[in-house]
Write a structure and sequence with these properties.
about 500 residues; 2 domains; about 30% strand; single chain; four-stranded antiparallel β-sheet; alpha+beta; Neuraminidase
Length: about 500
């Protein structure tokens, strides 16, 4: 869905940039680069077209990518509020552009004319391109420009913002690339005059923008539906379209790919491709997901977390002295058991997650925070993430992609990356941390300096009353528990 939305937003942005060619600045750019006011040598004109294009695309990225980054820092779209707001903006602007309403607010400013008399043509073309690519430094010729800015902030995705900016800048440059090199031989002049004499072209482009915005609104409306939540629920587990979770009423529940929901005969459920597991009466039951026929029953006491795959089941349980133990049992040979890890203190070993033979789990101690993976077939272990100062919690694994939470004094982040490297991790969700932050000085005294550590995503004061909990990963979405005061819910976040 996000790939389709990216294409739709980029095409709409390109048309919005193209619509800007009908502004005074749009016509003057063609005249400046292509006429004798600049330089009539074709090589210089082509170079100026190139620098104008690069400048316009850079300006677009600065505006729309920057707005998207601000939106990412300022808000969260996990509940679908951001998507709903973006869809409303797109729909409103689509109606306005389709009906040809007067643009408001309007920016009645043109680019500095003196630049073209004092600077070389390629340089001034590049600078003019940046100004026009910024979108809001000169006349705005469609509501789509305002809508794309609002969407960038509301969705808060820098990837979408950069795509919008690049496409918008390229759209602003297209008329210059098409008309300027031919201006001196007459063909360009005829085309330019035809554009100026036919306002219906401008209105037609606005209607094309309206259609693009309408498509974007439909796609973002789908995102609202996908950003669903499960109230009074925790500990998600997902596989092959099936979702299992622990309800706060004490029952394990399962939602099948068809949408049918079932109450399970136990708690702490987990799904793994074709199998499902739960615990009840001091035992763990592993059953076929399609028929719910038991395949294996294991005696186990004090179990509080389970993970399962078609080949292994892993569980965390407390020993007689309150210590945590993480144990795995082979489903093909139940006599084969592996002691994965242990901790003298409860809560130091996190909830396990399984992807075939690989189990991942977090170990959180006062001295270190790690996410570790172990191949249960070979016993080989790997540290996947390590920190001595940042919390690393609640991993999930699917086809080599690692989902986990990174917690510090500023933010709680749900991250997705590869098992082997942290370099290209993607932040799927960011919340303010639960840590209270003071202003760095005592009220009533002069604040000559501030000793508080800076946080770009939150002010000083009380921390967030919501913290992130157990997570799960599917091929299209991530699921994470949001735990508040006396309640919790599972939130679905698109990948």
């Amino acid at each position: 869905m996000l790939d389709g939305l990216l294409v739709a937003l980029a095409l709409t942005a390109m048309v919005a940039g193209l619509t800007g060619a009908f502004s005074p600045c749009g016509f003057s750019m063609v005249d400046t680069i292509g006429s004798t006011l600049g330089n009539t040598r074709k090589s210089i004109t082509r170079l100026a077209c190139f620098t104008f294009t690069i400048g316009a695309m850079l300006g677009g990225v600065l505006t729309f990518g920057g707005l998207a980054f601000v939106g990412q820092l300022a808000g969260e779209t996990s509940t679908g509020l951001g998507w709903a707001l973006a869809a409303s903006i797109a729909l409103t602007a689509a109606i306005a552009d389709w009906r040809g309403w007067r643009i408001a607010p309007q920016i009645r400013r043109q680019v500095p004319e003196s630049w073209r008399w004092r600077l070389s043509l390629p340089l001034v073309a590049g600078l003019y391109g940046v100004l026009l690519g910024l979108g809001f430094t000169t006349f705005v010729l469609s509501f789509a420009v305002w809508a794309l800015a609002g969407i960038s902030v509301a969705v808060g995705s820098p990837v979408l913002g950069i795509a919008i900016g690049l496409a918008f800048g390229f759209g602003r440059a297209l008329p210059v690339i098409w008309l300027a090199p031919e201006l001196n031989n007459g063909r360009g002049s005829e085309r330019l005059e035809g554009m100026a004499a036919e306002p219906r072209l401008w209105l037609g482009l606005r209607r094309l923008d309206a259609l693009g915005l309408l498509l974007c609104a439909l796609l973002m409306g789908t995102a609202v539906a996908n950003a669903s939540t499960l109230p009074a629920a925790t500990d998600p587990s997902v596989s092959e379209g099936a979702l299992a979770w622990q309800s706060l009423d004490g029952q394990g529940r399962l939602q099948l790919p068809s949408g049918e929901q079932r109450t399970l005969p136990g708690t702490d459920p987990a799904v793994g491709e074709s199998v499902i597991a739960w615990q009840s009466a001091s035992q763990i039951t592993v059953a076929d997901l399609a028929t719910m026929t038991p395949k294996l029953v294991l005696p186990a006491v004090n179990v509080d977390a389970i993970a399962v795959s078609p080949t292994w089941v892993a569980y965390r349980g407390q020993g007689i002295h309150g210590e945590d133990n993480l144990i795995a049992v082979s489903l093909t040979n139940p006599a084969e058991r592996r002691y994965v890890d242990g901790s003298p203190r409860p809560g130091e070993i996190g909830r396990p997650a399984l992807d075939r033979e690989t189990v991942v789990f977090a170990v959180d101690t006062p001295k270190r925070n790690i996410i570790e993976g172990m191949n249960l077939a070979t016993g080989v272990r790997h540290v996947l993430r390590y920190s001595s100062s940042t919390g690393l919690l609640n991993p999930a694994l699917l086809h080599g992609r690692l989902l986990y939470e990174q917690i510090n004094h500023c933010a709680q982040e749900l991250r997705l990356g590869s098992m082997g490297s942290v370099r290209h991790d993607q932040v799927l969700l960011r919340l303010a941390s639960t840590v209270s932050r003071d202003p760095g000085y005592e009220p009533g005294y002069e604040a000559n300096w501030n000793s508080a550590s800076p946080c770009s995503n939150r002010p000083t004061g009380a921390g967030n009353d919501i913290r992130l909990g157990p997570s799960a990963l599917s091929s299209t979405a991530a699921y994470v528990t949001e735990i508040g005061s006396g309640a919790s819910r599972i939130v679905k976040v698109e990948r």
